[in-house]
Amino acid sequence: MSHPEKFHLACVMGDPIMHSRSPSLHNYWMKQHGLTGVYVPVHVTRERLEAALRALPALGFAGCNLTIPLKERALEIVDEADVTARRIGAISCVTVRPDGTLAGTNNDAYGFIENLLEAFPDWRADAGPVVVMGAGGAARAVVYALADRGAKDIRLVNRTFERAVSLGKAIGGPVTPLRWEERHAALDGAALLVNTTSQGMVHNPPLDLSLGNLPKGADVCDIVYIPGETPLLAEARRRGHRTVNGLGMLLHQGRPAWRSWFGIDPKVTREMREMIEATI
């Protein structure tokens, strides 16, 4: 019986975690690239994150992805975080180096931009004002990505105004924090609307936002991907807007992780996307 020279291990940590589609994505790539190994979901609380991350080298893991609520805490644990992770203020991917040290980065911004460009190949960040709903961890990555791509006017709307102000200061760039009561008016003249909140996700209420002021030519993105079409995207589609959900963001953020872990640049294919969509 032949034995592989190496068993490839990676995981996603979060609390909760069993809803994640990351294992389906990464195990698809494992099979596609002929790697012997597995990518597993690991339930880790914020309090136990340090112990979990420090165990990765001893257990033979190449690295891990992080999801809610662990991304900000990981910044305090890894041995080195790159400039992207520090600017965003959160880590989404950890790589175990050959010497056992932990390197952290954030691939969410990359995934967000690649998702937009896949859906809207002609999209440009400087095409007009961008309205971002929410100021949580996902919003930090989205705002960073937009500013980095050259957006000139980012209107950041959040229920807690102070949090929007704090995010704007942390990211820098052309960010204008707006109060929740200003959300409808904020759409005036916008070229892109992005929902980064959990409103519209399955079991959550829809985003409380009227699209009446949104120009007909604006694009609409919702980083939620369960359900595949949120009430926001359904309304936008009925109005004639181009729309995209957050599944592509999940798929594309896995690519730089694989380059770091395994030295392989996997592709986001139609077959893989359809396989993940069938589980939603």
What's the helix-strand series? EHEHEHEHEEHEHEHEEEHEHH
Remind me, CATH topology of the largest domain? Answer: Rossmann fold
- CATH architecture heading of the largest domain: 3-Layer(aba) Sandwich
- Strand order of the biggest β-sheet: 2-1-3-5-6-4
Tally the structural domains: 2
Fourth-tier CATH superfamily name of the largest domain: NAD(P)-binding Rossmann-like Domain
SSE-based structural type: alpha/beta
Q: Helix count, per DSSP?
A: 10
Helical content band = 25-40%
Round the Cα radius of gyration to an integer and report it. Answer: 19 Å
Beta-strand percentage?
Answer: 15-25%
What is the straight-line distance between the termini? 38 Å
| Largest sheet: number of strands, sense, barrel closure | 6 strands, mixed
Average pLDDT taken over every residue: 95
Supply the CATH class of the largest domain.
Alpha Beta
- Which geometry do the CA atoms define? globular
Number of strands: 12
User: Which blocks of ≥5 consecutive residues have pLDDT under 50?
Assistant: none
